[in-house]
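Q: My labmate handed me this sequence with no annotations at all. I'd like to see what the chain might look like in three dimensions before we decide whether it's worth expressing. Could you predict it?
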Amino acid sequence: MVGAALFPLGRMWQEWAAFSETVGFLDDMALERSYDWVVWDDVDGLIRARYVFSNSPAAQAGIREGDVFFYLNYESFLRAGDLRGVIERTTPGTVLSYQLTRDDETLFFEVPTTRYPTFLYPLSGVLWQASIIGFSLGALLHVIGLVLVFPLARSSMAGRVSFALIGVSAVWVVVNLARLVAIQLLGPPVSGTVYPLIFEGLTLIGLVGWILFPGLLLLGTVVLARPVVGLSWLRWLAVVPMLVLTVLVFGSMDGQPFGPFTLDRLVAPLLFYAAVYIAATAGMVTYVLLGFPNRAQDHLEGWRFAGTITTLSVSLMVALLVLDLVPLAGAFSETTTGWLVLGAQLLTLFPVLQVSLATIRFGKVEYVLARTIRFVMLAGVFFIVFLAFGALLRPLLAQGERTFVIALAIVAVALFGLFEQVAKRLPRWAQGWPFGQAQDPVPATDFQSTIRTQQDLSTLLDASLNMLVEGFRANSAYLFVSPPDSPHWSTYAVQPSPPYLATSMADRVAQFFDHAGQRWSRNEEISTVELPQDVANDLRDAHIALIMPIASSQELEGLLLLGTRATKHGIYNLGDVDLLTALTGQLGLAIERMRLLDREKALLRKSAEAHLVALRSQINPHFLFNALNTILGYIQAKPESAEAVVEHLSAIFRHTLQTGSDAFVPLRQEVALVNHYLAIEQARFGDALQCHIAIAPEAQGLPIPAFVLQTLVENAIKHGLEPQQGRGMLDITISIEERGLRLVIRDTGMGIPSLFGQGPHRIQDVTFLGIGLQNVRARLEQLYGAEHDVVFESAPGQGTTVRLLMPIHRASPPPVPYHEPTLA
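A: Here is what I predict for the chain of 824 residues:
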């Protein structure tokens, strides 16, 4: 069938060779058509101008619709067909002299001809406007398709194939639309300027795109279906017609005949070639869908039987129609033929829609389409407002055209600025329109509440897995978690179906997931990890559709395996993946925190440093869940900021794990912990929180009690700066004095009402201490006795100042040197 794509070319060559052998070489058989941009038709025994293109040389010369033809170059004709034949055989650029009559008045016009625009049909006003509208809608659909497919093209072969197909088709559609708009605005390309060269370049690009699209459609489908039906040989055979047609197009671009071929005479062969290739693609997909329905789900996911049969039927109809256009040309008017060819061009875009729908449903479809519709409608509203201003300004500024243009330009600039601002804020006003507010399958706040209320790791994992299964409507799910200090996986399952997955599957799969953000899917479009074929087959047999890693602090905590979805199409898209990435990230942090608390409880039982353990566990849920909320708020709008917050949060947990039960840490290590904490708080509050830290260089390596500085800083933000409205400042100064190490923490927050007007108060004399400050006081007394000093001072409108003085000679160095971890 692919070889039949060259049938019209062979027939044209055979006819040309027969004529040449019989009557000699026929130059006029391959001459390029000229056009005067007037549709001449036989009406009541007269030749009348039925349509005159509005921006053409004929219209500019003065010819109007309804004018009656009398002479062409002082030669008379009886039929419109004879007149058109003479015009077409003139050399493009020839100036024709017309003698016409209008209302019994004889008129003379001189009109330069141009080349007939290939694949464009200025044969009637309705046909021309239909072409512009049709190709405009086609261009918009292609742009939307490219936006939706682009994220998928970065991670999968199927996504790249779809992106290439839509992109090549977009070249043809957009370039053809550009040619239509150029003629509409600038008129036909008359010889003598650079305009014809640009127009011919656009024609060449468009035709090459038209040739490549059907070929890539067939080749891409062969690649996707090859594991099912083979047919590798078809790739090489399919390339031959593409190369032949491309050579003919390049050979015919300079206006000279390439054998019997010119660009005009290649219209029918190109349409037939496209129809044959699209029919071959649809036929192959139909064969796979009918003969291998189970395997087709994995390799041609998204191709629906009804759409494929429709594509096959339409393409075959177009092919048969094109074959009949040449011998039956006399049975159709030129305008009817133009309608048929335009319909064939637009109908053959149907596979683009099929390919797009087969792929873009894995992307964020509703989000992109909703934003596009809102943007287009908003642009339309502002365009109407601009036209209204123009209509109002015209009578008000009637004194001069220049004044009107300047005023209209000022209005345009003002409206453009207003449009930009409204477009930025529109999603806040009309979020979810026109498809309705999108609801996350698992609301982040509910998931956080589930994590917050669970005190046991097994209970946490069971509750989380059940919520994910219910929210995403998964038919089954597994959760493999790697316990610390154990070579065995813990397994949690919901609604598993045979064949069941053993923990050995976790060992086979985990080696391919080395960091968060990776995923495997049975649908290649959203998969970023490639598993061995035997592993992938076992997962498919167990009805697993998606695997997400559960990671924290750059380490793999477990694997979430979700079964197929009990929905209409049963797929996961990028929106689902983004939400699952956020939820599994929270779950990973919760697992890490719960294990951290378990370790701290063990240390509490084994260590006499009871106050240190209690203080270290004060990375409290309030701060953790505020940080998680900040991450969720940044995921879509500022993904880089979300990643930075996750890294700072991971660094805090790493710090807690690395310090172990050390009573002292170097000052630089404690300051690094404070910097990570402040970075998260500044991400929450933005410019409302200003921080400044000044440390004496000679104090950087001195040991201080662990978590003392961090606790004082957290207390200043939580009880001083956070409750107040507006900007706040936190200032930390660390210096060395004769008596020891001096730490001063100042904030401009709400202050401590019980201390207003009381002057400085030592920590032993105040009564407002929380658990964290009580632990700090107890540990300092245990370590330094009466040799330390902590003073609080607060005043209304000025905030609170805490001064801590610690002797240096009583502190012993930490047993293990510390190195600030490098954030990936």
